[in-house]
Amino acid sequence: MSTIEKAINRKNQQSDLEQTTIEKAQSIEQEDIEQPLVAAEASSQTGANKGVATSSKTTINIDLDELERKNFVSLSSDRRLINEEYRVIKRKLINNAFGGLSSTLKHPNLILVSSSRPGEGKTFSAINLALSIALEQDKTVLLVDSDVLRPKVSKTLNINHEVGLTDYLQSEEIQVTDIIINTNIERLKIVTAGSPHHLSTELLASERMLMLVNEFASRYPDRIVIFDAPPLLGVNETSVMASMCGQAVIVVEENRSKLAEIEQAVSLLPKDIAIGFLINKAHRNQGKGYGYGYYYGAD
């Protein structure tokens, strides 16, 4: 029995909730990316309140060719293995968000992406999920960089924006529209992490954060929100975020993630959240064509 299967079996003994698909992204080589991936500029307008730039005047242009060269999900018409893999991964998440299971989950369209330890590929996976969902014709996606301690989404995409999540949580003068950034991908919007703050856990647990999450969950009926969160172990912020989401995707690295750490990470999640495991940096002989493998776990 594999490490992931053992973890699932033990988690299934704690909850009767059907778990989400456990996906295996077979050829992914990326870790949580430290170097800027694409060149993007955010035009901003300086206002009276801390130089706030409103979303209606802010658009970043993501270099889609560079994304493809870095093995991210492609928005072109070319059939690529990673696109096929993430099509399967996102399908279960979308079904949970808008299908029959959605009535049993709180905020099923809010998806937390995390891992047990750093370096297992959570940011790479969160960005790819957002890109893949943005290809849907009847869905939109908001990617929130909630790793306020070590922001990776904005760093990976080279986004510079004056205000983000923590800035909004500190100031009632900053509006939701001030932190949502438009992109040149029609159905994708982004919220950056914001300024570092020593009370990040308290900010994420605040009433203002709860109101923001409720707005994210209900304002647009076709929207999925993906939170790129810090690793679960050793970081209090992630457990706080998980309590507000309906689904969680735990990224594990094949042949590296330890069973004990996976179990410990899962134990920090709410009992009523739908949990899926995405196996990153997995290798096997592919043969010809585009193939994918996945695990399906349910009670």
Description:
- The protein is about 30% helix and about 15% strand.
- With about 300 residues, the protein is α/β, with parallel strands linked by helices.
- The protein has a single domain (about 5-295), classed as Rossmann fold (3-Layer(aba) Sandwich).
- α1 packs parallel to α11 and α3 (about 80-100) packs across α4 (about 120-135).
- The two termini are about 15 Å apart.
Q: What's this, in brief?
A:
With 299 residues, the protein is α/β, with parallel strands linked by helices.
What's the topology here?
Elements: H1 3-12, E1 22-24, E2 59-60, H2 64-69, H3 81-98, E3 110-115, H4 122-134, E4 140-145, H5 153-156, H6 165-170, H7 176-179, E5 181-183, E6 188-191, H8 200-204, H9 207-218, E7 223-228, H10 236-242, E8 247-253, H11 259-267, E9 274-280, E10 293-295
Parallel strand pairs: 1-9, 2-5, 3-7, 3-8, 4-6, 4-7, 8-9
Antiparallel strand pairs: 1-10, 5-6
Helix pairs in contact: 1-11, 3-4
Tally of distinct domains: 1
The helix count comes to 11
Through-space gap between termini: 17 Å
Question: What's the CATH superfamily, by name?
Answer: P-loop containing nucleotide triphosphate hydrolases
The general outline is globular
Number of strands: 10
Structural class call reads: alpha/beta
